[in-house]
What we know:
By secondary structure, this protein is α+β, with helices and mostly antiparallel strands.
Amino acid sequence: MAESNSKKYVSPEDLAKHNKPGDLWISIQGKVYNVSDWAQSHPGGELPLLNLAGQDVTDAFVAYHPGSAWQHLDRFFNGYYLQHYTVSEVSKDYRKLVNEFSKMGLFENRGLGVYFQLFSVAMLFSLSVYGVLCSDKAWVHLVSGGLMGLGWIQSGWLGHDSGHYQIISNKKVNRFAQILTGNCLAGISIAWWKRNHNAHHIACNSLEFDPDLQHMPFFAVSSKLFQSLRSCYYDRKMNFDKFTRFLVSYQHWTFYPVMCFARINLFAQSFMLLGSKRLRVPNRGQEILGLLVFWIWFPLLVSCLPNWGERVLFVVASFSITGIQHVQFCLNHFSSSVYVGTPVGNDWCEKQTNGSLDIVCPSWMDWFHGGLQFQIEHHLFPRLPRRYLRKIAPLVKELCKKHNLPYTSVSFTKANTLTVGTLRAAALQARDLTSPVPKNLVWEAVHTYG
């Protein structure tokens, strides 16, 4: 640490030492802040601060916080400035875009779309329940299961949006909508979603820090995971043992079937978080009560079906339809660039564009993708309501072109092909590890098509 012109400076190397619980320093626009005591109270959770601690985090801060947040920074200023602080050209242009969008009111003007979405969720759930209770035909019950799945998908988009910004202006009504659409109707804890999704955004496609790429023993998107890396999100080692090798070896075949029942994992993750004594969960009581509501009404509704065959088909139909959404989440990142290591704060644009993929679709299909088709735009501007993502896409393309950043945009079919191709490539590498037999023409003939 040094002093110059009455200012105290800290070098990037010294700043990097303050990167652990109880000792968290960050730099924003050259000023250094001590957020050690604030981490547990941070609305976005402690993980974003822990993952980026000891670095300049200006771009991430700009992406995630409204202008009003700047006024609260001074109380964390520790008197130091970051030595040799510079701003890259891409960051300058990125911050200009954020400023322009703010002046245009895009971050605040959410429109009335959320009320239409809430209405559509209510209609889908009502039709599903009506079909179960008011019809004795098996095919109607099956369709009702599908409608339930569609309702979960639409409630999932609302939960996703509400994890990034306030979808309803009144905070209490907004919180009620979160618990209702997430916990009560879908059985997914909004607290789990926010914790998981914030970690994903901050560490986009880091094999050690991004929970959305940590799906072993079922899936491994890269052979780098064969090294049994440690998950910094789950705080455990991701063992690549014989059982995992076997499952991964066929992951390109099991991908879609597993996605049909991926919802079970979300149920489990929700209970694990809310039952954890180690992790802080805001409003834990509300979260648990919301899940209890789901686990009362859903089994009760299923029990109203006349026999076990129809009950099983109803559950399978609802889970399978919702599996489409789980596939969509995977398409945006599985085939993109991955890396091993800690997320870096001063290459925000580079990491978000390298780790994300857009899906081309006409505007009338936006309801189907829930805004995720503009994944690059969403990752660069996570607070931006989805209704504006199509509008800003040309500006993001221009930013990427100017600074030679990747901007990958493909069709829904191509995105599926790329994802399965990524899983297949890792699967064949896993098979190679399990077999001591040298590769030859016979081996290639057997394994070429998976």
